[in-house]
Structure formats: structure tokens, C-alpha cells
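May I ask you to comment on the folded chain given beneath this request?
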Amino acid sequence: MAAAPPGDQELIDTAVSQAGLDDFGGDSFREGLARLTSSLRTEGRLNTAGESVIYPRLVSHLVTRLQVEDWYARHPETDDSPVLSPLIGLSLPRTGSTALSFLLAQDPDVRYLHIWESGQPVPPPSTVAGHDPRVSPLYAEKIGTKDHVPSDAEGPMECLDLMALDFRTMIYEAFARIPSYARWLNDEDLTSTYAYERRVLKLLQFGETPRPWRLKSPAHMLWVGDLLSVFPDVRFVMTHRDPTDVLASVCDVYADIGATFSDEVDRGYIGEVNFEQWSLGIDRVLSLRDGPENERFYDIDFRAMQADPIGEVRSLYEWLGEPVSDAFEQRMRRWWGVNSENREPSTHSSLADYGLDADDVRSRFAEYVTRAEEWTAHRS
């Protein structure tokens, strides 16, 4: 008989044993961990590969949290350094936001979350002499069978692993069928999650001259109000694309990744969960942008980004009131040229493959499409 999947307390005990530490810096993470492990156990349909990857990953989040708290206990001055002027990308997925984040990461005068440090932020990079062993091509390896987004060992990473330290993150929704966790997460307050992300960002910049942060994740749309409360000087950049193309493409990503961890890929569920969470995220952004916070946003159309990426970044920086240095522009052109040469043809399934109707999608996102056209009209 196969062993029962570990519960939340067993994972906590394992992490404490591995790290040799026991201070998690508060209990905000416990409910999310309990709900996630329960959903994985009762709904996840994990295969052997899924269990062998996902549960150790949960332990690694707990170990990281222990290490973060241990670092702060030994270096309380870490909290004194401000998180400067973050520019955060939040958009529907599959809208070119990852390509934009790679372009922005070419600016030598900003700080971004590296792929290799997102999963292992301790110790701060500035404290490592010589080559940092965390900088490894392994961190650029993809999960699934397709190249979903640009990636390299030194490239930028979304905030999802930092959010996972509070166990309120969308990342596991792509890994497994966990509807009860997904429903709970959609309506959660993520103030504690973003406060912990800020704590880790301060740790990562320890020993460095503070620079403006460039961060991104489509998931931020669902909790943009909580994000704003933790980062009151934040500004946002949104990339925009036809939602029917977006949903078909992101469902393919979920199906591809999910097939690695389960022998039963539920395409109807994948369609349902993506339709629900991204329409909810758009609703929350639209609501926020109805008020004065709209001034915090800069908008880029997907087609404009494809046609003139350097020009779009220049316009963004003009809005930010920051220069585009010659070195920055050269690095952007070099990255875009290499990435364009290596880019795979973009194809995706139909919405019907995931139980979705194109007319229903267009109707649900109609207000967003109208607003996006208005937001980007003066930049076309």
C-alpha cells in the first residue's frame, strides 16, 4: 500500500529537522499550507512524479522561511533598507509580460528577482564570495514539455515563489487540480503575503546600494489592493491582448504542466479555473482603475510590443521619468534579437478543448477590452 501523502504538520516537522531552526516568523502561513495539503490530498490526483516534486517543494518553502527568519535574527538591520519605487507588471498571462520583464531586466540600474534567487534567497547574494552556486542553468529548466516563456539562468522570475512562503500563491494551481484551495485563495486577503515578500526583497538587496525594483506576476491582479497597501509607492505596467487568445494559451500551459504531475488532466477544470480567476482579476483591476489609482498604471498593447519593443520600453521610461542609457538599449536589442531567433512558433488549442465558449469569453471580458483599447489608444 502506498504511503499517505504528508499533512501540513509533517511537512513543518520535516522542514524544522532539515533546517535545524524552528522560528517561522509568525503563523500567517499555516492556514494556506493546511488548505493546500488538504486539497492536494483529496483532489490533486497526483502521480508518483507529482508527489516526488510537489511535497519536497513545499518543504523547501518552509525551510526558506526558517532561513529568512534566522537571517533577520542575526542581521536585524536588514529591515532598515527601503524597497525603492517598485514597478510591478500585472496583466493577463500570455500577453508578452514575461518578454517585457526580460527587457526591463537589461537595465543595469534596476534590481529584479533572479530565477536562481527566487527559490533560495538566503544568504543575500552580496554576502557570497566568488561564484554563487545558486546561479545554475538548472534554475532555467522548464516544467512540462514546451517552452512557455523566455528563460535563462540569470533572467527575471515572477513573484510566485516568494508568495509561496506564505502559502498563498497561484503556482500550485498550474501543478495540480486543487479547486477548494483555488476558491479559498481567490477571496483571501494577501496583505501578510506581500508583507513577507517585501521582507525577502529587503534581504535580497542586503549589502547592495538600493535600486528600483522591477517585479511581475499576472497573479497580482487578483490582490492588487492588498499589494498597494504593502507597497504604497508602487507603479504598474499592464500588457494587453485579446482575452480569447490569452485563455486558450494559458490553459495549454496548465494542461502541459499538469500532465507532468498527474495522469488525469481535467481540461474542463482547467478551463473553469482560468476563466474564473482571470475574469475576477480583471474585475478587481478595473475597479481600482475607476479611481485616482489609475494614475499608477502604464499600458502596452501586445501588438505594439511585438512591433517595436525598444520603443515601447522607451515610452514606459519616459512615463517613469527615468533615462534609457545606451548600455540599457544595447542590452535590450541584443536580448530581443537572440530571443527572436530562438522563439518557437506560437500555437494553441481552441477554447472548446477546455469547455469554454469564445462568445462567452468575449462577453465576460467586453468591458476590459473596451477599456484596454482606451488605455493604449494614445500610445498606438
